[in-house]
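Narrative summary of target 7.
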Amino acid sequence: MDFSIAWQKLNEIGRDLMRALPNIAIGVVIFVVFALLARGVRAVVRRITRSKGKNHSLSLLLGRLAYVAMLILGLLVTVTIILPGFTPASLVSALGVGGIAIGFAFKDIFQNFLAGILLLLTEPFKIGDQIKYKDFEGTVEFIQTRATTIKTYDGRRVVIPNAELFTNAVTVNTAYDQRRLQYDVGIGYGDDIAQARALMLEAMRETEGVLQDPAPEALVMDLAESSVNIRARWWVNPPRQADVLDAQDRVLEAIKNKLSSNGIDLPFPTQQILLHDQTEVVDGNRSRQREGWPAGKSNVPPSRADAQAEAEAEAQNANDREPHT
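Modeled conformation, tokenized:
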């Protein structure tokens, strides 16, 4: 077998490698320099973003992006030095259709990534805020490039894609320092509304945690089936869920005790069932038939039995008055 051709190829590869060794060495040095420079740029970006008052997640993200961008630039420069015939334009043309295919395959990932960057930049909510999204409500733990993690009030973790949070409505319960709470209290129709409202306002003002400015309110909201509903409204600070529940517990207890101690009725829903007496003589006559309602001062129609007995008695009396032949 003739190995001369293979030996010749190996010699050429060796000579080419020896000629490329200086370029490889320079390229490695350049890449190391860019790696060190990337670390410095990452530190500078984090320091600048923190000094501007940006949150920690945004600082980490921008620092990471700057680090990766410097590494990619260093890799391109290194490859260009080692392979003089290589240019970034040739890399872009080589990607071609493959890059488009990759873009479609990772469309959702890129969408969530961009949404995460926009959430960190615009800051509609921050880490530590309590938010509500659809059926999920809790405290924001992390805002990452792909998803946001919240811890629910019952101790569960929910991971929500950033694209959903960016394109849908999100309620931020802790966006402001104060939060208004409300609850409807029903009193009896026979009770004095003005007195009940004054007692409710007094109870709210005396409750710990209820702000005096804005002042509590008591508004008549509904004339319901069994009660007159008065809406109690009060403000608390801070607006976190634990404080909200504590304040509501104290306010409702105070209102209930205050109203009960002053003789205000707190009725529960009731229904009155009226049974129609079908034995009355007027039953079937819609103009005179009673549907079980009290007669009041009017005359109550006699029952059929009484009417029949009266008719028989009158007939008997008539027979007795007739002369006998």
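DSSP finds eight helices and eight strands in the chain.
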